[in-house]
Amino acid sequence: MLVLVSIWVAVAWLGNLQDxxxxxxxxxxxxxxxxxxxxxxxxxxSLRGQYFMGPAHQWNERSGKAxxxxxxxxxxxxxxxxxVLGQPAQAGGTNPLAHVLRNDWxxxxxxxxxxxxxxxxxxxxxxxxxxxxxRASILGLKDFSIYxxxxxxxxxxxxxxxxxxxxxxxxxxxxxxxAWSDSAHASGAIGLRxxxxxxxxxxxxxxxxxxxxxxQPWAGYVPAERLEHSFRELP
Length: 235
Description:
This protein has 2 domains: 156 residues, no CATH class; 61 residues, no CATH class. The chain contains 7 helices and 3 strands, in the order αααβαβαβαα. The longest helix is centred in the first third of the chain and has 36 residues. About 6% of the residues have low confidence. α1 packs antiparallel against α2. The chain has a 3-stranded antiparallel beta sheet.
């Protein structure tokens, strides 16, 4: 029975650690991505409230006491940005045209964002030293009252040309004068002149006028031959 009780306590101890470590990992990812959108100090406050406070994030010891009673003091969030790479290390190198395309497509490196979240479970032993001495028990559960620091971090590259969807990707392409707009406007101007001349001829066949927006109408469409595997939605 002593062995079974010890195993039961160990499973609960390890489960608390694993659940909290997973939450710390999610918080570090959220911190990194949030910093690329809004690098403000207020984001750390909301992050603590979202991941380490509330009824969905309650971790208790065997005695029932909270492991994170003071999230503001026990959870530390550090976000930093590394130095921007030099021009030779950027995509396309020092080529002047490549520099223009990097700016147009949002591929210009802004520095890697590093986010680290550190959680200190059982920090009440720091604020209340008289509680740090565990009482020995016949089951030898003293070690299960000690929780290690949980540290997780993630690094992401901001400005890698990501788009939120097909429409956004086509908007990025369309804004590039070098890669799209200049050529599209020249071709469109010629097409409008041809359409003005041929519209009288095509009118007899009730043909539609050509569309010179070659990006937005195609949002969400992928040619079948470009799909690696065809699939059918289940009912």
